[in-house]
Give the backbone structure.
Amino acid sequence: MSAQLKFSINGLLNPLKEISSSMEGPMLEVQPSRTTPIQDSIETVPGYPVQIYLIPASRHYQVRTVGRMNGSRPRASLKTESRATALRAAKEWYNGLLLKQAKGEHLVDSPDFKKAAEELFKEDEARTTLDKTTKSHLSKSTHDNNLSVYNSSLVEYFGKMQCKNIRKSTILEFVEWVRTKNEKKSLSDKTINNQLMVLSKILRKALELEYISALPPIPDLSPKKAASRGWLIDEEFGKLCMTIDAMVVEGTPVHGAGQVTDELKLITLFAFNTFLRSSGDMKLLQHKHIQVKQAPETGESYLLIYATAKSDPRYTVSLPAAVGIYNRLRQLHAGRTGPDDYVFFPGYARTTASTKMAKQFRMALERANLRIDIKNQKRDLYSSRHTVIMNALRIGMDINWIAENSGNSVEIIEAHYGSHYRAEMGIDRFVAAINKNSAAEVGSTLESVLADESLLEAVTS
């Protein structure tokens, strides 16, 4: 396995950087107000008394009427970053206004976020007067703090919005806005989490008032406790492969997951040669997400994969061995390798495919007596990702590149794998230093060897 990891870091890092830089658009100039139109973006729609424009608070085009209609000046988000799409959508929006006007309907809905907030804080204030022994009691300090948080940023950002228009993307845009609102001091995740907690309470009140039919997902920026991750050393990986080979020959049945075939072997090899998440990236992987590329410096082939499972899709590169494995997968599913066909178990619904992968791999681990690691923790298909990351660390690949390619942060990787890989990184220097001392002083004890400063540095670095 380690041999498969020995490829040019620079050769693969350069195309990854090129892709990353090509995806970065021009930064919008920060305006005094988040809803103030960016002057250079304002454009009148030909033949219509409406304008499209951009604002610093959103990547999407906005639309507004040139003048007032029924005493107000309607405006809305067009939910698109495409100028051409925005021009078409603006025409449809204005036609909708004319229809509302003909029916005598209000052209501008009064924002209900403020209404929901007012209802919440009115009830919370009443709760502060209840007996402290009652379950509904709320301390005045908590109420005052929530109200202060609301007035500091939430009302400024969401105050003019309808609750039904507050989605996950809207909340993520708010997080970025409030994080850099104060140019002199960036807010901490803990402070922003307080903002999101109050936002969640207001949206729950909006749900109760039937302003919305479902709550949008609220991101949690709290630091996650590092979970222990199981992985396989080279000998264990070899044992697992031999076990899967035997199961394929036997046609081993797996309860609720069909019969083991060559597909499990290819899934395993593919997983151990990419940085993909088995729980999402692999089950959703389609052929249109994969490109066979060549590293510019070495000419070595690799796969450029667009991983779509997480909320923030990313490009990732594979180890070179994945190219041949991918070709074998295409041969296995000949006739089902179109752009929209899934790479693994293409004939099944994604939930079924995910179940088959997970259960068959788990059965292989159990047959190989590898289901539980030395720390008494269970292994599963996700362990493949941890194995690839761990092996990359063991051979000295740049941790920043590993983090970028695996869609993790350096902090997360160090938390999950740091103690183990740091223990192994100094072993070659330690052994070399011991051999050097042993040659100079035959019969040296371990105590005398460790007294040498160069050896101490090798052990502790």
In short: The radius of gyration is 29 Å. The chain has four domains: 3-21+229-408, 39-103, 113-208, 427-460. DSSP finds 17 helices and nine strands in the chain. The longest strand covers residues 58-65.
